[in-house]
Amino acid sequence: MATYLVTGGAGFIGSNLVEALLNAGHEVRVVDNFSTGRRENLAPFSKHIKLYELDIASPDGLGEAFQGVDYVLHQAALPSVPRSIEDPIGTFRSSVEGTLNVLEAARAVGVKKLVFASSSSIYGGNQELPKRESMNPAPLSPYAASKLAAETYCQVYCRVYGLPTVSLR
Hints:
By secondary structure, this protein is an alpha/beta fold. It has one domain: NAD(P)-binding Rossmann-like Domain (Rossmann fold), CATH 3.40.50. Helix content is 41%, strand content 17%. α5 packs parallel to α6. The protein is globular, with a radius of gyration of 15 Å. The model has no long low-confidence stretch (mean pLDDT 97).
């Protein structure tokens, strides 16, 4: 049994990951600030998870949440292109600063692997299907740019600090 931490665990994808991990017999921790996630998504599992109501844009409290964690599934974000256009700084803080705080917390405790939820929006208006990693990024919104920047930080933390990361688009 491994210990997983799911950032953004109260969101749609995050809460489904929480359920799958619990069903597989793992210990699960959730970090969420409930800005877009919903408490009712976690209600069925509330007695089986450790919940940290934290904003990843601030490193405060992340150290405690990450103690003893084996794997991180990093889902937390402000998932909206229109919102990112209205509030590019908030999007940057959540996606880029938040990811950097998550990477630092993961590095500090020796997490075995971090999986980052990126976005196909980094490809911009490219209509070619299927999407391939070899396609050039061409972000058209602050949301897409922030996801690309966060992916780059994940790559850097792998190369510089040896923290295994994978980014999913």
